[in-house]
Amino acid sequence: MQRKAFLQTSAGLMIGAALPRSVKAVAPSDRINVAAIGINGMGWADLTAALKHPAARCVALCDVDKGVLDKRAATLINQGKVDTYGDYRKILDRKDVDAVFIGTPDHWHCLIMTEACAAGKDVYVEKPVGNSIAECAVMVATRDKYDRVVQCGQWQRSQKHFADAVAFVRTGRLGKIRLVKAWAYQGWMKPVPVQPDGNPPPGVDYTQWLGPAETRPFNPNRFHFNFRWFWDYAGGLMTDWGVHLLDYALLGMDAPMPKSVMASGGKFAYPGDASETPDTLTTVYTFDDYNIQWEHATGIDGGCYGRNHGIAYIGNNGTLVLDREGWEVIPEKGRMEAVPLTPKVDDGLVLNTANFLDTVRTRKVADLHAPIQAGAHVATVAQMGNIAYKTGKKLYWENNRFTDDDANRYLASTYHNGYNIPKV
Questions:
Q1: Coil, strand or helix at 283
Q2: pTM across the whole model
Q3: Which domains does the chain have, with CATH numbers?
């Protein structure tokens, strides 16, 4: 493929790769009033990235932890009045809020996103968009019903080097691709120490934090960051890093839903720690003429190709290796030329939030880099892997469900405490 054609393909995959426009002043009528719900971790990162956009103004914050809420509000004191809430519904009731950022634990994403769309808000929702396959379907249907702008937090879709790598894959120069690997080896992850149950910290509305999850005594291991390693609230590394990296495995291959999935792993690194999700997992997805393989491991940094995370498109002529730092091509001897490392050049999170806010203005939802449909697709694939792990079976997918009744029991999350999965 000639260079001109390659650049055209790359541009088509990555619209709006430049940094947000530099605007000295924005008229009040052009401002976008945003609010953030869940602001301890990625929710705060998303909001601070969004506020680099010249039109964005934060008018409200919500968190069930008053200590976090007060700390974040103090940070924004110089940008004007910011109201604080412990109940997200009070934000959705406000007519002056144009868009909301959802950075809660995963088990809250579906409920808040669907209620926000029904309230006429545009939504930026963290990944994984849904905590079950059924939730993913509901979230897409909700966006369609209310015709809202919904972006998900898969910010790598807004980075130039990721788009350029996919454009190269699609030139065909790698030859027939028979396997795509995606992996996350997380050496920084240590055991989650077993701790006794106790009382929530002062200022924490633990009942509100639980929401639709099963009522359990408060345990610090299940709160804030570590909620990711408990099935009640999330899906472990598979739906944490896996959603980011499998997204590009699927995107590069323009992959539909897999025909089958199987998974094997367990708590091999830290068998006695407090977490529930597997610290070691290998998952294989089968498509018509290629496989996609996912691997993760905690406490280890020595991943494939010397990288602790990444995606590798393995073709007959060579292998393209891609991670958050850049991409390169490793040739098969005598079959193609190597492509040296092309490093990252931009900030994906700033670009992803800017793309969302620009689309809030234009209403051209086709311009979104990470629309809810893409988020639901990869989250569904990741949930399929977790279900295969839980059942210990090779599972086959037909007509939006498994052919195995045991596996289909996991399609929908079980809601508790009077909550029900939204109906559209």
A1: strand
A2: 0.93
A3: 3-157 (3.40.50.720), 165-345+376-408 (3.30.360.10)
